[in-house]
Amino acid sequence: MKLNERSVVHYATCDSPADHTGFLCKRMERHHHNHHVPSYQRRWFILKGNLLFYFEERETQTPLGLIVLEGCTVELCEAAEEFAFAIRFDSSGGKSYVLVADCQVAMEAWVKALSRASFDYMRLVVKELEKQLEDAQRSLAASHKSPKKLSSGRKRHLSNPMMISIQEHPVILENGYSTWDSSCTHAEMASSDLSEGFLKPPPLPPRRKLIGSAVGGAFLAGSASATQESPVSPETTCFSKLHNWYGQEIAEVRREWMERKKTVEIGTH
Amino acid sequence: MRYNERELLSLSRQPAEKAAEVLMRAPKKGSALKKRLVKLVVNFLFYFRTDEAEPIGALLLERCKISKEEENVFSISFLEEPERKYYFECDTEEQCQEWIEVLRKASYEFMRSSLIFYRNEIQKMTGKDPLEQYGISEEARFQLGARKL
Questions:
Q1: Which of A109, A146, B37, B88 could form a disulfide with B48 if both were Cys (CB 3.0 to 4.6 A apart)?
Q2: Tens digit of pLDDT for each residue in A129-168?
Q3: Looking at domain A5-117, which of 3.40.50.150, 2.30.29.30, 3.30.70.100, 3.30.70.20 is its CATH number?
Q4: Nearest to B122 among A18, A50, A133 (CB)
Q5: Strand, coil or helix: what is A169?
Q6: Does residue B49 sit at the A interface (CB-CB below 8 Å)?
Q7: Across the interface, do B116 and A190 touch by the CB < 8 Å criterion?
Q8: What SUPFAM superfamilies is this protein classified in (chain A) (predicted)?
Q9: What's the 3-state SS for A40-92?
Q10: What ipTM, to 2 d.p.?
Q11: Contact between chains at B43 and A5 (C-beta distance less than 8 A)
Q12: Shortest Cα distance from B23 to chain A (angstroms)?
């Protein structure tokens, strides 16, 4: 099987971050019937993502070898040497690589780093953070809904925010566009090594609508409608857009309050 | 460079994130478009002859560029040699766009950047580092490394 070896070799020593580095002794894989005492070679190791590279020397530019860390476990092992551990693969006959660290601290650091090197581990962490971001956005939305409950009165007041929202549509679009620009810049900075065409992190799933027992049906319908019409919704992953959206919502609430105040004054006359 | 080929072959037999039969051309001179089964598993794109169980080759999708070429065609090239392109011709334009989208997100480095992005957004909203509760906030894996300019 051919590998895009030149690219892999380049990746080994390019400026993308290494997750762990250090010297380890690697047990030689020689097979002789009479060879009872295993021998070890001291090598410079670089862990990047799910790939463990090893080099003749620290300064060497081309790795001697690569271990792809998918489908393996990392475990301490009983060897003549202290501070030894093994990378064991479940498939293909249970092959394992025995490595020896210089000291206890180094061994523990390597075992920890290698245990979390798989692609699926990173994927799980990303999914967890996606979920937490969604939860944080939801609780922020909930805290902003509280003031609105106070102003949920007559039906015609609910229609006003929607009309105002429509009238201000160009302004919101402009703000949304501007925010989007800054978002892209931020994302691009964070992802400078990613391939061209990277626009944004993976989208969050649509937010489930919360049903508040204290909220009237009319308010809920109005709220849902307003959310659907807004070009910048709280489902976005970008905090600055979210912040801007809630700024708009607060402005609407204030307008609504002023309208109600005016109505009361008219009633007085 | 030696590598654990048997384990990589075992990886190629794992369920794919995405797989399809396409026409593929390697960056060698005079290379022709050939029918291949391509299969994305984690950050590796394996390619097979359509009737064989073992892949002919694999591309590690790190520091690569996925480009739209002419209709139904996209290419993969690597940052250190941008002119050497692997070409892939799909059956439809829609399939082509699907592959481009998936491949642009296939690398470990993309995953890392997404994680850092989410971590920063959560920290801005809640004032707390979401990784601290798991005791992994200090790991090198979750930081942006120093970059040469």
A1: B37
A2: 988 898 898 888 888 766 544 443 433 333 333 333 333 2
A3: 2.30.29.30
A4: A133
A5: helix
A6: no
A7: yes
A8: PH domain-like
A9: EEEEEEEEECCEEEEECCCCCCCCCEEEECCCEEEEECCCCCCCEEEEEECCH
A10: 0.92
A11: no
A12: 18
